[in-house]
Design brief:
The complex is a heterotrimer of chains A (286), B (388) and C (112).
Chain A (H helix, E strand, L loop, with lengths): L26 H15 L6 E5 L7 H4 L3 E4 L5 H11 L4 E7 H7 L1 H10 L4 E6 L34 H8 L3 E6 L3 H13 L4 E6 L3 H7 L5 H11 E3 L16 E8 L5 H13 L13
Parallel strand pairs in A: 1-2, 1-3, 3-4, 4-6, 5-6, 7-8
Antiparallel strand pairs in A: 5-8
Helix pairs in contact in A: 1-7, 4-5, 5-6
Chain B lengths: L11 E6 H12 L3 E4 L6 H10 L6 E4 L3 H13 L4 E5 L1 H17 L3 E9 L5 E5 L4 H6 L8 E3 L4 H18 L2 E7 H5 L1 E6 L43 E3 L13 H16 L2 H4 L2 E4 L6 E4 L4 H14 L4 E6 L1 E3 L3 H9 L5 E5 L6 H9 L4 E5 L9 H12 L1
Helix pairs in contact in B: 1-2, 1-6, 3-4, 10-13
Chain C lengths: L9 H9 L10 E7 L9 H5 L5 E3 L11 E3 L10 H5 L5 E9 L2 E5 L5
Antiparallel strand pairs in C: 1-4, 2-3, 4-5
């Protein structure tokens, strides 16, 4: 082997490798796409902060060589909002799992989107609480098996793009870890776009979700994503719910514009307060 | 030490209640970002903050709940700001996980608790002091915090500044324990010139960035805190971590870290504790009181001395860490026969007093379930019983 | 599924016209793939999704007991680095190498 170094290593805390993710887990793929997106975006990684919650995906914060925060379960979004308010000049990215962001974090998710907090939220959806052994989650498909739903889940799962869309997110996309180029491109677009940008990433959990539901291993999951996915950019988010072994609608569904939290604050205060108010920096160049 | 930014200092003589004065104290201390959620009797603090912060270059956002508020302030703290949130009873309970997160990650921040009757929804509009143990033990695990108890609107101004300074110096969450009486009482508050107000800044790292270890203790057992967005590439986690800030899942790392978090406060209690004493030199009974009750007992003290009883008052201004050294000294004085501890709860700080007195003097609690203040004569009756 | 799915569509006919074997000599880039055998956890993504089938799984094991990829057809590698994008263990990546009459100038997917 030559002294060639994998270009991704300069973005990783190599002193913490190997990581804890299982063979065939999709989270490492998400890291690749995220790093590619940072490179393509032209944003200096030292002008960016990564915030995660708790769970397998939440461990990304600890492996990526940037200012990063591994916060409490369900709460990366308000932490990120606070961070962005303090430092609007920095890019703030939330990388966390669906259990963290949508179940315990659900309230913060909808309010973050409502406020159009200027943060990018990349949500890995592997349909389970993997880190703690595979409990049922808010996106677990009906009839899927989990440790806390041993006879099959009977709760209707959330349709994440619809939830994000109806809460007011300005950018909503879904890809799977099969769609690496499109995912990197969506992340790049989100990094460049002001406002609450949401990307759902369907990813395999071979050790727990796939195995317990007899869906094969990571490669089987990826083959399924390739076969079952249909790119429908601009799809009506109401119609993109997921079912066990069903089709996966992927694409960029929502891309619209409205003032971010800090822009809206300025818009409200400038006319009302006049000279008494110095416009607060928003970090947005429109 | 740096002085306050005049933009946030409302110098002059004012007539304010404790809630309003607390807001002004925060602004004078340099707070420019706050997040909160309404709950009686704390709401007036954030209402005033929401009016004042935009006029001094700051931002207030009312978050969706107390859980969001208590973690949003920490994001902003890591963004370099001095931050505060405000709540009471049920909201403080919700915030407890994040008090623990602040302690574990050494995030400077101020939590204001305008205490009201509890438990649960309790007495929203009436005073109590029943969250004192919660302030100290409310989150899970071993950690220490600092808690201050003002007893007047003036102190709500002055001690809020101290709260911020201690938070920055020790990189710790500081619990500002007001109560509904102090919060809603209106009194004269004198706000000095900005140049008379000392404000403390967190210590920044020195030396090359590659050598920086985010959780290696510097002076005062406190690690310097790296600024965000300048290439330090630090990692912060609530998991037990090593000096690099990396998760370290073993008993050795746990012992080292948790021990330091506790020692950081307890071994430097001399610098942190502040007490007020009245006539303890010859006292046979020393009243231990804090917060609003410390004002009530001044009347009791007067009544007792008028009757020739040798009574004194020991008032912890900083309740956590508790002034163990001084109280132990007082317990061992020859003439000290008893500590009488009136508080608006069924006995919380009295437990601490009893533990510290360790039998050198009796400890007599004067409990009160809350909702009103003690009557000075009520406390005097207890003192007279003790003296026999 | 449509019954005409196997009939070449207009777009396909265009692609067939371009992929003329005699044009191979004009290729400006080739690829090189670097494999870190010991990091690999044998998920198989790189082998599956390499568009030109450069890789196959080794019959042998690495020290962790996984079958890492080996290069089956080096000439087929275009340096697209899809393997690098797919690898969850950061164990493989491809680089584009410029073919320039004796000089090989390497271009990674990232600059700097």
């Amino acid at each position: 082997m030559s002294d060639h170094v994998n270009p991704i290593e300069r973005f990783l805390r190599m002193d913490r490798m190997p990581h804890i993710w299982c063979p065939g887990c999709g989270i490492g793929v998400v890291v690749n796409c995220f790093v590619r997106a940072i490179e393509k975006s032209g944003i200096d990684r030292d002008r960016m902060a990564v915030v995660s919650g708790i769970g397998c995906t939440g461990r990304i914060a600890g492996y990526i060589k940037m200012d990063s925060f591994h916060t409490t379960h369900g709460r990366p979004i308000p932490f990120a909002t606070g961070l962005k308010v303090a430092r609007p000049d920095l890019s703030v990215v939330v990388l966390s799992g669906e259990g963290d962001l949508i179940s315990i974090g659900g309230n913060h998710f909808i309010h973050g989107a409502r406020r159009n907090s200027d943060i990018k939220v990349f949500c890995v959806n592997n349909f389970t609480y993997a880190m703690t052994g595979g409990q049922v989650g808010p996106t677990a498909p009906m009839h899927s098996i989990a440790t806390t739903a041993p006879y099959g889940s009977y709760d209707k799962p959330f349709n994440l793009p619809f939830l994000a869309d109806s809460s007011g997110a300005v950018y909503v996309a879904r890809w799977t870890t099969y769609h690496v180029r499109q995912l990197a491109r969506s992340m790049t677009e989100a990094l460049a776009k002001p406002g609450f940008c949401f990307v759902e990433i369907v990813a395999p959990c071979p050790t727990i979700y796939s195995r317990r539901n007899r869906l094969g291993d990571g490669l089987d999951a990826m083959r399924y994503y390739k076969k079952a996915s249909k790119v429908v950019n601009g799809a009506n988010t109401r119609m993109v719910g997921l079912e066990l072994k069903g089709p996966i609608i992927v694409g960029k569904f929502v891309d619209r514009d409205r003032p971010t939290l800090l822009e809206a604050m300025n818009n409200e205060f400038i006319p009302k307060l006049g000279k008494k108010y110095t416009p607060y920096p928003t970090g947005v160049n429109r | 030490m740096p002085k306050a930014d005049p933009r946030g200092v409302l110098s002059g003589v004012h007539f304010l209640d404790g809630d309003q004065a607390c807001c002004e104290g925060a602004l004078a201390a340099g707070c420019r970002v706050a997040f909160g959620y309404p709950i009686t009797p704390s709401t007036a603090v954030v209402e005033r903050i929401s009016r004042r912060l935009p006029l001094v270059g700051g931002v207030f956002v009312q978050m969706e709940d107390e859980i969001a508020s208590s973690i949003a302030i920490q994001g902003a703290a890591w963004g370099g700001k001095k931050v505060m949130t405000v709540s009471s009873g049920p909201g403080i309970s919700l915030m407890m996980e994040h008090v623990g997160f602040a302690a574990m990650t050494e995030t400077p921040c101020v939590f204001v608790n305008v205490q009201r009757g509890g438990p649960s929804t309790g007495l929203p509009t009436l005073p109590a002091q029943a969250d004192m143990m919660q302030a100290r033990w409310g989150s899970h695990g071993d950690y220490e915090i600092i808690a201050l108890c003002p007893n007047s609107p003036q102190e709500c101004f002055d001690l809020t500044i101290l709260a911020f300074n201690l938070a920055e110096r020790y990189r710790v969450p500081v619990m500002f324990m007001m109560d509904e009486a102090v919060g809603h009482m209106t009194e004269k508050v004198v706000i000095p010139d900005a140049k008379e107000i000392d404000v403390e800044q967190r210590r920044l790292p020195e030396g090359p960035k590659e050598d920086y270890l985010p959780y290696r203790a510097g002076e005062n057992m406190v690690p310097p805190m790296a600024p965000l967005g300048e290439g330090y590439r630090f990692h912060v986690t609530g998991l037990t971590h090593d000096e690099k800030g990396y998760p370290a899942m073993d008993a050795g790392a746990q012992a080292e870290l948790v021990r330091r978090l506790v020692d950081k406060i307890l071994l430097q209690a001399d610098d942190i504790c502040r007490v007020e004493e009245h006539q303890v030199e010859d006292a046979e009974v020393i009243i231990v009181a804090y917060g609003i009750t410390s004002r009530v007992v001044l009347r009791t003290l007067q009544m007792a001395r008028d009757k020739g009883l040798k009574v004194g008052v020991f008032r912890p201004v900083v309740v956590w860490p508790f002034p163990v050294k001084r109280l132990r000294q007082l317990a061992r004085l020859g003439q000290t026969r008893a500590f009488v501890v009136p508080e608006l709860n069924l006995g919380q700080i009295s437990l601490e007093v009893e533990r510290i007195a360790a039998g050198d003097a009796r400890t007599v609690s004067v409990p009160h379930a809350g909702g009103a203040l003690h009557d000075p004569p009520e406390i005097l009756r207890v003192i007279e019983e003790v003296l026999g | 599924m449509s019954t005409t799915q196997n009939a070449p569509r207009a777009a396909d006919r265009r692609i067939l016209a371009v992929a003329d074997p005699t044009r191979k000599a004009e290729r400006k880039f080739r690829g090189e793939v670097y494999i870190n055998r010991e990091r690999c956890k044998g998920c198989g993504f790189c082998v599956e999704f390499c568009p030109t089938h450069v890789l196959e799984l080794d019959q042998g094991f690495n020290h962790k007991g996984y079958h890492p990829p080996i290069i089956a057809d080096a000439d087929a590698c275009s340096g697209c680095d899809l393997c690098g994008l797919y690898c969850p263990d950061f164990a493989i990546y491809g680089v584009k190498v410029k073919i320039d009459a004796g000089e090989n100038e390497e271009l990674g997917h990232a600059q700097g």
